[in-house]
Amino acid sequence: MHRAIPLTSYDTAALLFFAALWAFYGAAVGGHVFHRPSLNVAMNRQRRIWIETMARRELRMIDTSIMAGLQTGTGFFASTSLFALGGCFALIGQTQQVLSVLSEIPFIHAPERGVFEFKIIGLCCLFAYSFFKFAWSYRLFNYCSILFGAVPPAMEAEQDRRAFDAAINRAARINILAGKHFNAGLRGIFFSIGYLGWFISPLIFALSSLLVVVVLLRRQFFSEARRTILSDQAGPGSGESIRPESQ
Asked: What predicted TM-score, i.e. pTM, was given to this entire model?
């Protein structure tokens, strides 16, 4: 019979707290928790404005350059996630050596081998999640490039305005969807930093995860970048009237 992983009640509580923070952050940046729009929501509006502006241009080389930059960045993070995943698998093969090192570090209690390997597998899952999100985002940006080419020239807009607007909407929605998956991949990378605290203790795991979420929420809702993006998107006040789109 297989021996159960000897997780303590503190480990289980910290892991559930981590999952709750993950769900809360995803809902918050998606506009499902606060009325205050997040930076992601504001940038989705900018993505749509960009596509609408692109459609009015006769020459669209600048737009294809922007798309190439987005694809390059997404491909970089996908490769990085894959390398990190490979490093985690390599770490499993060196479990005994790592535990020996941990046992010599003050204030750190080296866990049992089974617990340590379980934690590594959890870290593998985070990087695998990020890789799939980045890979799908890269694919969607490719699709978006094709949809850019399918947008008719501005001079032909009046001939079939309905088809012209539909082409713009398709390109904008796919671009926003690609951004959603890219942000989800980044979430996995960011949360993996908090997850590392679990290798020290469940309490450090909970605190480090909470710190990561606090930092990310500050950047999404109270950063200078957000204030800059929202400064011209609404009337008097702070621009809080933007309606969240699908992230």
From this structure: 0.85
